[in-house]
From TrEMBL, chain A:
Domain Sm: 1-76
Name the record gives this protein: U6 snRNA-associated Sm-like protein LSm8
Gene3D superfamilies reported in the protein's UniProt record: 2.30.30.100
Keywords: Acetylation, mRNA processing, mRNA splicing, Nucleus, Ribonucleoprotein, RNA-binding, Spliceosome
From TrEMBL, chain B:
Gene responsible for this protein: LOC114249790
Coiled coil: none
InterPro entries cross-referenced by the UniProt entry: LSM_dom_sf (IPR010920), Sm (IPR047575), Sm_dom_euk/arc (IPR001163), U6_snRNA_Lsm2 (IPR016654)
Domain Sm: 2-76
Annotated PROSITE patterns: SM
Species whose genome carries this gene: Bombyx mandarina (Wild silk moth)
Single GO cellular component term: P-body
Protein name, as recorded: U6 snRNA-associated Sm-like protein LSm2
Function according to Swiss-Prot or TrEMBL: Binds specifically to the 3'-terminal U-tract of U6 snRNA.
């Protein structure tokens, strides 16, 4: 059945890592272990005081061990988000 | 292979995936693979006020290694069949 990431390539995705961080970027590539190549990536840091985005490096490789979720971002919803007003605790790390 | 086949039979059904960081995501099971990686479509996060991290995400891929539970409606599962299949798989694997 191959539930793969092929459909997400060259699209904007949100990668949630096993330590609870959220990276937004363009998915350029992946492999069987879900190593991810993310272009134009930035990290969205949530805090109970304010939701802030930081621009990190343009091109990153995230090792598959650390990938939890790869979400397909709907640009029409994302552009309407008021990130400055979203307050939330950061996601917790994965506990195995 | 047993649970891979089991999940394949549930494609199209609504499930709730609870992850090991306590995040719970409801969605339609789109596909599954041999690692039990799960793709959900049309997702909604349970307790989205606490977890606004995925507000712009409608479809997502969840790595199998981070899944704690997959919650299914009881009427979608033939527990007797599953139990028998698991018993058979257990006897095959211990030979």
């Amino acid at each position: 059945m191959a539930s793969g990431l092929e459909n997400y390539v060259n699209q904007t995705v949100s990668v949630i890592t096993s330590d609870g961080r959220n990276f937004i970027g363009t998915l350029k590539g992946f492999d069987q272990t879900i190593n991810i190549i993310l272009d134009e990536s930035h990290e969205r840091v949530f805090s109970s005081t304010s939701g802030v985005a930081q621009v990190v490096l343009g091109l990153h490789i995230i090792r598959g061990d650390n990938v939890a979720i790869v979400g397909q971002i709907d640009e029409s919803i994302d552009s309407r988000l008021d990130l400055g007003n979203i307050k939330a605790e950061p996601l917790g790390p994965m506990v195995h | 292979m047993l649970f891979y086949s089991f999940f394949k039979s549930l494609v199209g059904k609504d499930v709730v995936v609870e992850l090991k960081n306590d995040l719970s995501i409801c969605g339609t099971l789109h596909s599954v693979d041999q690692y039990l990686n799960i793709k959900l479509s049309d997702i909604s996060v349970i307790d989205s006020e606490k977890y606004p991290h995925m507000l712009s995400v409608k479809n997502c891929f969840i790595r199998g290694s981070v899944v704690r539970y997959v919650q299914l409606p009881a009427d979608e599962v033939d527990t007797q069949l599953l139990q028998d299949a698991a018993r058979k798989e257990a006897t095959v694997s211990t030979r």
